[in-house]
């Protein structure tokens, strides 16, 4: 997968994308991530990327020209990846990111992520350039940079070969709309608190049944809404 991120704060990305599993995924060529400074696509002599809203009002609006220019340039450089390119705008107005949406988006060969800023973005960008708007939750951040990192992280770990152990994808939270079962490691007793005996039994069938039961119990307690959704 190739991910291009268009932002006015390119320096925000390196500390997150150049660490841990995401760094390794890039090393293994499972994903290529490119960060683009929106200002580089502004033809304005001051590299302006926003302007006052028509009709008046508070705040500035992101201008359409640099955003169209960035996306069109990237699309023309990556023609071999089209039609598997999807242009996504990160905005609180978008579809809420869920594990299901992440799985769907992880199938694309090429994503272009545009980091919006909530004071506004010219409506023509949404209407004529963007394929999908994504929100990471019902709260407002200062911009789309953190949401773009969240989305990228969530998708990259789903790519084949990125996580070492295939099982770690099969039994994690939200699979089958259940939260993950409780996990324990050594010691078998800590501060007088024992590990459930089923996990120490060595009986795989018993362990599997216990885990399913616990996952269901935990989901009922913490996220009963997930059980109503069905698979
Ligand atoms: N930009 C600001 N807040 C956001 C959110 N919750 N999701 C996506 N983009 C945003």
What do you see in this structure?
With 231 residues, the chain is an alpha/beta fold. The protein has 2 domains: 2-156, Alpha/beta knot (3-Layer(aba) Sandwich); 173-228, tRNA(m1g37)methyltransferase, domain 2 (Trp Operon Repressor, Chain A, Orthogonal Bundle). It is built from 10 helices and 9 strands. The strands form 3 sheets. The protein has a 5-stranded parallel sheet. A two-stranded antiparallel sheet has the order 3-4. A hairpin with a 2-residue loop joins strand 8 and strand 9. 21% of the residues are buried. The model has no long low-confidence stretch (mean pLDDT 94). Bound molecules: adenine.
Q: What topology emerges from the helices and strands here?
A:
Elements: E1 2-7, H1 14-17, H2 20-27, E2 32-37, E3 50-51, E4 61-62, H3 64-77, E5 85-96, H4 99-105, E6 110-115, H5 123-128, E7 132-135, H6 145-156, H7 167-170, E8 189-190, E9 193-194, H8 197-200, H9 204-222, H10 224-229
Parallel strand pairs: 1-2, 1-6, 5-6, 5-7
Antiparallel strand pairs: 3-4, 8-9
Adenine is lined by residues 90-92, 116, 118, 135-137, 139-141, 143-144, 147.
């Amino acid at each position: 997968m190739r991910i291009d991120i268009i932002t006015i704060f390119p320096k925000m990305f390196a500390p997150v994308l150049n660490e841990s599993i995401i760094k390794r995924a890039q090393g293994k060529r499972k994903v290529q991530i490119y960060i683009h400074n929106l200002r580089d696509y502004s033809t304005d002599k001051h590299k302006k990327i926003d302007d006052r809203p028509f009709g008046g009002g508070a705040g500035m609006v992101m201008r359409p020209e640099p955003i169209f220019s960035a996306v069109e340039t990237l699309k023309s450089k990556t023609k071999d990846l089209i039609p598997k390119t999807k242009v996504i705008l990160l905005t609180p107005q978008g579809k809420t990111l869920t594990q299901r949406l992440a799985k769907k988006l992880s199938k694309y060969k090429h994503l272009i992520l545009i980091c919006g800023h909530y004071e506004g973005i010219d409506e023509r960008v949404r209407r004529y350039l963007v394929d999908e708007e994504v929100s990471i939750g019902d709260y407002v951040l200062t911009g789309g940079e953190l949401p773009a990192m969240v989305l990228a992280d969530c998708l990259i770990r789903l790519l084949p070969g990125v996580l070492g152990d295939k099982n770690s994808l099969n039994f994690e939270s939200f699979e089958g709309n259940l939260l993950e079962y409780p996990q324990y490691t050594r010691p078998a007793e800590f501060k007088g608190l024992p590990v459930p005996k089923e996990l120490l039994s060595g009986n795989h069938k018993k362990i599997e049944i216990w885990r399913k039961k616990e996952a269901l119990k935990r989901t009922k307690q913490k996220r009963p809404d997930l059980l109503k959704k069905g698979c």
